Amino acid sequence: MASSEEDGGGNGAVEEKENGKKKKLGALATTWLIFYNVAMTAGWLVLGIAMVRFYIQKGTHRGLFRSVQKTLKFFQTFALLEVIHCAIGIVRTSVLVTGVQVSSRIFMVWFIAHSIKQIQNEESVILFLVVWTVTEITRYSFYTFNLLNHLPYFIKWARYNFFIILYPAGVAGELLTIYAALPYVKKTGMFSLRLPNKYNVSFDYYYFLIIVMFSYVPLFPQLYFHMLRQRRRVLHGEVIVEKDD
Ligand SMILES: CCCCCCCCCCCCC[C@@H](O)CC(=O)SCCNC(=O)CCNC(=O)[C@H](O)C(C)(C)COP(=O)(O)OP(=O)(O)OC[C@H]1O[C@@H](n2cnc3c(N)ncnc32)[C@H](O)[C@@H]1OP(=O)(O)O
Questions:
Q1: Which atom of ligand 1 is nearest to the CA of 140?
Q2: Which atom belonging to ligand 1 lies closest to the Cα atom of 131?
Q3: Is 238 noted as a catalytic residue in this protein?
Q4: Alpha-carbon span 136 to 238, nearest angstrom
């Protein structure tokens, strides 16, 4: 993490090491990442503004998902590139951690909120939408300013503090939404394959969703503790030895 004067100071040795790392990132990769992060910041800002405008004009959250879904789908799906960034090594972070984070979001957007219209007006959908939006505006603006070597301290602070509350709140929104979807999935048998069929395979989306819900129990703490470690490293200059994937 390269610091700038606006950072509010920090450890000189850590700063030097971090600047060295940044020099190694090629100019092309840096240019691409700046473009990517600016586009993502703008996308999530547009989404945030659209949500606020909708609520002010209509005075209800009903219909909000429907009105912002195109922007949400586009920018959240675009985030798949983050897994590629890690895989090709232009971003120094774990493919596994990023993969779990991005795939769970894509799953929520396409296989839950998009596919099950009956749950689109649930309060829990608005909860995760608001939480994701605040998180992503902060996160992508952090990356952008950091790459430009002009990182205001409040953005750095927000990036590594907001998540403490937002992560559990987002997970609560996601789990409550999947829970609300269960009766519709059971009633319609959507995305399920019953025997007998020509493939001789059966799949029950209802039970799959229950497994997904339980998978948050081991996976979410890993993401949360990863972020707590990143927080100690960036805000308190602790050297953390990360295990390879
Ligand atoms: C098929 C069904 C699958 C179902 C799976 C079900 C299980 C799911 C369990 C998990 C639930 C997750 C729920 C989640 O969706 C809920 C929410 O998001 S709620 C909102 C709160 N969320 C957050 O705060 C998100 C926090 N997460 C993240 O920030 C990232 O996604 C994460 C990958 C976890 C971040 O990790 P990372 O290691 O990247 O942290 P850093 O930001 O500190 O970055 C490390 C270094 O990489 C550089 N970097 C990273 N990305 C970029 C970029 N785009 N551009 C430039 N540089 C980048 C960064 O600067 C750091 O560099 P350095 O080491 O040099 O300092």
A1: 54
A2: 20
A3: no
A4: 25
The pLDDT of residue 61 is above 90: yes
209 within 8 A of 139, measured Cβ to Cβ: no
Count the helices and strands in the chain (H runs, E runs). Answer: 9, 0
pLDDT tens, 118-173?
999 999 999 999 999 999 999 999 999 999 999 999 999 999 999 999 999 999 99
Q: Is the pLDDT of residue 68 over 50?
A: yes
Q: Is 152 left (phi over 0), alpha (psi -120 to 50) or beta?
A: beta
CA 156 to chain centre: 17
What CA–CA distances, in Å, run from 125 to 48, 122, 144, 177, 227? 14, 5, 28, 6, 24
Contact predicate 219/100, CB 8 Å = yes
